[in-house]
Write a structure and sequence with these properties.
Biased composition (Polar residues): 12-21
Shape: rod-shaped
Domain Ig-like: 30-93, 103-195
Structural class: alpha+beta
Protein name: Ig-like domain-containing protein
CATH class of the domain at 104-199: Mainly Beta
Region (Disordered): 1-24
CATH superfamily of the domain at 104-199: Immunoglobulins
Keywords: Membrane, Transmembrane, Transmembrane helix
Length: 243
């Protein structure tokens, strides 16, 4: 028997070509598809035995090609499928392992980005594990598309398709109003998000100074109060031990 696909398939439809075996040309042979995960008989001949409308049997009368088609493949569709041929001399089976590849999107960096007004926002979105590069990568700010609605000349989007598609969103000289939740996604991925905070440079410096001052005060308290107490306690313990 010859198979029209690799036994470890990553496709969303699977074909079994039985043309190499003369007994399959007999119209009395019954072709069935079985999902081995739950032993569900999906079809027998052209008759489907599932309420899931994503499944279909494709067969041209007179041909020896029987295709199990699964539209809009989901994670739960992964696993082993069996094409079973009932013949007068017994049953012949061919197995197909369907691997469902789920594309992923993520934005480089942590979940937050802090930038100063007048600098540059540079966000990079990576989409990987996609069987084919996505046609479009969508950028949104607070659930509003950036790609199409924004005519600002200081915003640009550069997308390089490939096994790891990369899309870069660049906003030059951002303002406070550019703060918000930014997401990127393709048609077959869940969105990835990052929150961008745009602040005035003086405010950022003041925050940094406040953090430094607080740290200095804590260090001073430790040196003038806590450290002497530790030293006194240590000397007392040594005195008790020696006496």
């Amino acid at each position: 028997m010859r198979s029209g696909i690799n036994p470890d398939s990553k496709l969303d439809n699977n074909n079994i070509d039985t043309s190499d075996n003369p007994m399959f040309e007999d119209s009395e042979n019954q072709i069935s598809w079985i999902r081995r995960r739950d032993w569900h008989i999906l079809s027998s001949g052209a008759q489907l035995y599932t309420n899931d409308e994503r499944f279909a049997i494709l067969h041209t009368p007179g041909s020896n090609m029987w295709t199990l088609q699964i539209k809009f493949v989901q994670r739960r569709d992964h696993g082993m499928y069996e094409c079973q041929v009932s013949t007068p001399t017994g049953i012949i089976s061919h197995f197909v392992n369907l691997q469902v590849v789920v594309p992923e999107a993520f934005i480089l960096g942590s979940g937050e980005l802090h930038v100063d007004m007048g600098s540059t926002i540079n966000l990079v979105c990576i989409i990987e594990k996609s069987p084919t590069p996505p046609q479009y990568v969508y950028w949104q700010k607070n659930d509003r598309l950036i790609n199409y609605y924004d005519s600002r000349r200081d915003i640009s989007i550069e997308t390089t398709p490939g096994p790891r598609t990369q899309s870069r969103l660049i906003i030059r000289e951002p303002q406070i109003s550019d703060s918000g939740n930014y997401t990127c996604s393709a048609s077959n991925t869940e969105p990835a998000s990052i929150y961008v905070f745009v602040s005035k440079g003086d405010n950022m410096a003041a925050i940094s100074r406040r953090k430094t001052s607080s740290a200095d005060r804590l260090a001073a308290i430790f040196m003038h109060v806590v450290a002497p107490c530790i030293l006194v306690n240590t000397l007392v313990m040594r005195h008790i031990y020696l006496t």
